[in-house]
Amino acid sequence: PFLAMAETAGPKITIDVEEGANPWNHLEFHNDPNNFQFAIVTDRTGGHRPGIFEDAMIKLNLLQPEFVMSIGDLIEGENTPEKVEHEWDEFTGFIDNLQMPFFYVPGNHDIKNDMMAKVWKKRFGRAYHHFVYKDVLFLCVNSEDPKFHIGDEQIAYFKKALEENPDVRWTLAFLHRPFWGYSQEEIEESNWDDFSALLQGRKHTVFAGHWHDYVKYVRNDMKHIVLATTGGGSRLRGPAWGEFDHVVWVTMTNEGPVIANLMLEGIWDENVRTEDMAESTQNVFRGMAVRGGSVILEDPSAGKVTTQVRIENTADVPMKIAAKFEPHSILSVDNASFELTVPPNSMEDHPVTVSWKEPGSLAGAGPLTLLYTITYQFPNHQPIDMEGKHAIT
Fold it and tell me: pLDDT for 63-91, tens place per residue?
């Protein structure tokens, strides 16, 4: 073997290269320093579902984008300054957990009226702005200037921003309302045509929300994408309906943005399944969670006997069991069904009283069968149900 220094756009790699075949396809590492990754969150409100947006913040920290963009509807919007301030306190508390910059773009729930516009200005300053990052121009547009409108001053602002940055490799626009998807009368009312005209002749992509269902459009050969939800009201009927909770992962390249929609339910940290979870569920599958219960007939004429079924929970979370004895031709069980919750890392003995009417028939009696469902609720997981059966002989 000989030592090769692979020439790449980024850091070099030191690796032994054998003559002939080597266990890789090529060494042209995909690490163009001009590329970068950022994320987009979409509507949190408009019938918000508690906990979803907060979960997205945790998962964004796992993904480690360079920064996070938004497209509005971050709060529900109340009718007094005090309530609006409280909502923003709550929301900025979520953002405080992010490890990277977060850029605010207003939606109709964020700036419903003059009062809310004043609160926004006090907290965040401008309701529209722009910036350039790695030769990409970002336009953060206010679609409520006033309601359902991009104001003339805003049009002039972005015209100047675009004129000052004529040669950027791409332009990205973020706004709440997808004006291009409305009727022509509404489009004219919104001033969208005037804004859209500013983008003509340059490579650009537009992101919006508001509708709570995902749709990709192509206008003038450029992508215009309406995002779904990050906690906003939704029937969650799935991708075919455009109804899902997601964050958008964007990789910016010289050929334009590469867009990946990441469903929140598909983003997990390293604790997606721990050793404790694996051992606990395997304990159930191996039949070790429910044991015992042998019937010793010292006196068949007594007509009944009491035994114990031992239920063992080896997990660090409570274990629920719902159990029921199958009907038997000779034997019967008092309280044939039962439910228990066994604390973590403990066991319980459940008494079982078995009775019969004809002592002479016991010689041919088969085993009693206990059917059970064991349920675990591990942190951040849906309940796990496992079915099994245990024979008492």
Answer: 999 999 999 999 999 999 999 999 999 99
**CA 141 to CA 156: how far, in whole Å?**
12
CATH class name, domain 274-392: mainly beta
pLDDT digits (tens, 9 = 90+) for 333-359: 988 999 999 999 999 999 999 888 776
Q: Could you give the CA distance from residue 77 to residue 333 in angstroms, rounded to a whole number? A: 60
For 109-150, how does the pLDDT look when each residue is reduced to its tens digit (9 = 90+)? 999 999 999 999 999 999 999 999 999 999 999 999 999 999
Q: Are 212 and 43 in contact (CB under 8 A)?
A: yes
Q: What are the domain boundaries of the chain?
A: 32-267, 274-392
Picking from 47, 125, 121, 141, the residue whose alpha carbon sits closest to that of residue 81 is 121
Contacts of 100 (CB under 8 A, 6+ apart): 60, 64, 65, 66, 67, 68
Which top CATH class is 32-267? Answer: alpha beta
What end-to-end distance do the CA atoms of the chain give, in Å? 67
* Element (DSSP H or E) covering residue 248: strand 246-253
Query: Residue 8 — very low, low, confident or very high, per pLDDT cuts 50/70/90?
Result: very low
